[in-house]
Description:
Strand content: 5-15%
Structural class: mainly alpha
Distance between the termini: 28 Å
CATH architecture of the largest domain: 3-Layer(bab) Sandwich
CATH class of the largest domain: Alpha Beta
Mean pLDDT: 97
CATH topology of the largest domain: minor pseudopilin epsh fold
Low-confidence stretches: none
Strand order of the largest sheet: 2-1-3
Number of strands: 3
Largest sheet: 3 strands, antiparallel
Oligomer: single chain
Radius of gyration: 16 Å
CATH superfamily of the largest domain: Iron/manganese superoxide dismutase, C-terminal domain
Amino acid sequence: xxxxxxxxxxxxxxxxxxxxxxxxxxxxxxxxxxxxxxxxxxxxxxxxxxxxxxxxxxxxxxxxxxxxxxxxxxxxxxxxxxxxxxxxxxxxxxxxxxxxxxxxxxxxxxxxxxxxxxxxxxxxxxxxxxxxxxxxxxxxxxxxxxxxxxxxxxxxxxxxxxxxxxxxxxxxxxxxxxxxxxxxxxxxxxxxxxxxxxxxxxxxx
Length: 205
């Protein structure tokens, strides 16, 4: 069964506190759709691979034929990364995490401010296009950065939170001011959704 583009979970202008409507429309309707279309094209005739959930497909990337593997990494990663990205943002976002997620962040990074600073550092330190991530790996939280659309799943990590630092994610409003975008982005983070991902990942360490 072919992969499909998930609808945005809110109107395109819902995240104006950090991301403008036109960026959301282009990012979702053009970029993400392109990844889905290209992934399906790469996997045409590969029924067993098309049947796998996207996270499993990426975790088991070595089972993908070598001649299409890089296309699956690029486009499957783009699909997985963006599907999560839309879900961990909300017009009601912002503030700080609570509960067990907050406790884990504080015990790992010292406090939430230090955690946010390290995410910003990872995003600014990524040369060119990529992502900054909070992942769970071997039961521990880590901050990592990946190039292009590479997914943490490729490295056996489970993404909990990720921020897109490709220029198409922020350029219309912020131009080359990636730091400003990374600061503003926290205004729309849906901590409830991030906490759900953390709880789910803990269940399958």
